[in-house]
Write a structure and sequence with these properties.
single chain; alpha+beta; four-stranded antiparallel β-sheet
Length: 215
């Protein structure tokens, strides 16, 4: 089997075996190093103007999980999974443009002149947008990195479930999240105690149109 074909087989396996898992083995602990590896893969996701607005709050402390449980509508996976990862979006991510292009320059991806110009363009453009638009961008980019996180976890043999069912204001209060950030979702990460249930998908022809949209 060629390297290219092997990679395709492995990718197909990951995307088809990933299911949302809600029952986890509470005795299974994923190391901080492994979580960092998963997050390291996740942050390779694309983002608007490469501003990378995602931030992660990794919750592994059992006492904090218990406090989070009622905020997350008593979803037991919050407590039983190895970690609950809060994906958070920075609506002022453009403030990091200089730093991002400094890294890009150090890596040899851009010259200092080009990097400075691109950073200025990002700061000028995004700072002029209304808050709702900046929030929308952070949520879209947060969704991209969340999906990549879940696939990265499955590639390492772990399971996840995305959770939108939680009280964002109570979450913000518990963890002292500044107004600059929006909560995108919570993701439970761990080892399944019960395999995730397979779910049906609409046929591709029912969700795809070519060249014109008929509703």
């Amino acid at each position: 089997m060629t390297t290219e074909l092997k990679s395709e087989v492995e990718f197909n396996k990951v995307i088809r075996e990933r299911h949302s898992v809600r029952k986890y083995d509470p005795s299974w602990k994923i190391s901080d190093a492994e979580i960092k590896e998963i997050l390291g893969d996740a942050i390779l996701a694309p983002s608007s103007s490469n501003l990378q607005p995602w931030r992660f709050l990794v919750i592994t402390d059992q006492e904090l999980k218990e406090k989070l449980l009622p905020i997350a509508n008593n979803q037991q996976q919050v407590v039983d999974a190895s970690a609950t990862i809060a994906v958070i979006g920075d609506i002022e991510a453009y403030r990091n443009a200089d730093k991002i292009y400094e890294y890009a320059e150090a890596a040899g991806y851009v010259t200092a002149e080009i990097g400075a110009a691109m950073a200025k363009r990002s700061k000028d453009g995004y700072s002029s947008l209304p808050q709702e638009k900046l929030k929308e961008i952070a949520l879209v980019d947060g969704g991209l990195v969340s999906m990549q996180l879940m696939l990265a976890a499955k590639a390492k043999g772990y399971d996840t479930v995305p959770m939108g069912g939680f009280n964002p204001e109570q979450f913000r209060e518990l963890f002292n999240i500044p107004e600059r950030y929006v909560t995108v979702m919570l993701i439970a990460l761990g080892k399944a105690a019960v395999e995730g249930r397979s779910t049906a998908r609409l046929p591709l022809d029912e969700v795809t149109q070519w060249n014109e949209f008929e509703g």
